[in-house]
Design goal:
The chain has helices at residues 36-51, 85-92, 98-117, 168-171, 179-194, 204-212, 226-235, 246-249, 253-256, 260-272, and strands at residues 2-9, 12-19, 24-32, 61-66, 72-78, 120-121, 130-132, 138-140, 147-148. By secondary structure, it is an alpha+beta fold. A five-stranded antiparallel sheet has the order 1-2-3-5-4, covered by helices on one side. A two-stranded antiparallel sheet has the order 6-9. Helix 3 (98-117) packs antiparallel against helix 5, helix 3 (98-117) packs across helix 10 (260-272) and helix 5 (179-194) packs across helix 7 (226-235). The protein is globular, with a radius of gyration of 18 Å. It starts with a strand and ends in an 18-residue tail after the last helix. Residues 144-161 and 282-290 have low confidence and may be disordered. Residues 1-255 form the Protein kinase domain. Pfam families: Pkinase. One of its GO terms (molecular function) is ATP binding. This is mitogen-activated protein kinase kinase.
């Protein structure tokens, strides 16, 4: 049963609903797939959702079906009741405390590790595509432009994704691989900790200059814990060869220090900080809109 609309966009509509047999709250995405591009995006998103199965750091899907008469595609996924990290930033209008940034960062990296271990490159890590809920759980979503890198080389060359969180090698038009997702995740973590995006670029040429010529973003070592500063510095290495992969970063002290207790503390902070109001579930459209 569907009970309310969570969001609408060029890609379709997302509604909240209830799975009758279990009483579980879910999100139902409905899309009209009427051309080849939409069909390919939907198939890629469903493939990503299938590969996400069982990972607690990726949004889970429960069902998918096509309306017999309408031709509409319906995808039933996990409902994340606090929206995206972009919503969290808007509600707070301030930096996230470093201990909670660490908890969020650890969950992002564990979700990325699951994708990368299955040779899936996300390609659009940004605050809008990282969801959270009242339990303190943080999960990646929106696999509509993800890419399966099963070749030996494991590189991609297409220009997709959101420019602000794009890695320098992608801005340069070079081939890129899994470490490009690491840069994007590092930018999200930096923004949460610092309270704002690091660059003031008015257009892509400005952004290109920032990504490829200006110093990489770094947190102030006098204001932030050493582990968080070190983690961000590793993620935001301009040289992608020197940038660690996610398999190395999940062993970083920042990540290994985060577990169930820290997730519980994040949930308590969300409930008491004014960062807990219910918002529409974003990040469910392949075009990035909600």
């Amino acid at each position: 049963d569907r009970d309310c609309t969570l969001g609408t966009g060029a890609g379709g509509v997302v509604q909240a609903g209830v799975h009758k047999p279990t009483g579980m709250r879910v999100a139902i995405k409905t899309v009209k797939v009427d051309n080849k591009e939409k069909r390919e995006q939907m198939l890629q998103e469903i493939k990503g959702l299938v590969l996400a199965a069982g990972c607690p750091y990726l949004v889970q899907w429960y069902a998918g079906f096509v309306g017999k008469d309408t031709g509409l595609v319906h995808v039933v996924v996990e409902l994340m009741d606090r929206g995206s990290l972009a919503d969290l930033r808007r509600r707070l209008a301030a930096p996230v405390p470093p201990n909670h940034v660490a908890c969020i960062a650890a969950q992002i990296m564990r979700g990325l590790e699951h994708l990368h271990s299955r040779r899936l490159l996300h390609r659009d890590i940004k605050p809008e595509n990282v969801l959270h809920n009242g339990l303190g759980q943080v999960k990646l979503t929106d696999f509509g432009i993800s890419k399966d890198l099963t070749s030996t080389a494991g590189v991609a060359a297409s220009f997709v994704g959101t420019a602000n969180y794009m890695s320098p090698e992608r801005a340069l038009g070079k081939d890129y691989s899994f470490r490009s997702d690491v840069w994007s995740a590092g930018m999200v973590v930096f923004e949460l900790a610092h309270g704002q995006y690091p660059y003031k670029a008015k257009n892509f040429l400005d952004l290109y200059e920032c990504l490829c010529a200006q110093p990489e973003p770094r947190l102030d070592t006098k204001a932030f814990p050493a582990a968080l500063c070190g983690f961000v510095a590793l993620c935001l290495k301009r040289d992608d060869i020197a940038r660690p992969d996610v398999q190395s970063l999940v062993k970083h002290e920042l990540v290994v220090s985060q577990g169930a207790e820290q997730i519980k503390l994040l949930a308590e902070w969300l409930a008491t900080s004014g960062a807990c109001s219910f918002v529409a579930q974003p990040g469910l459209f392949a075009d990035g809109r909600s």
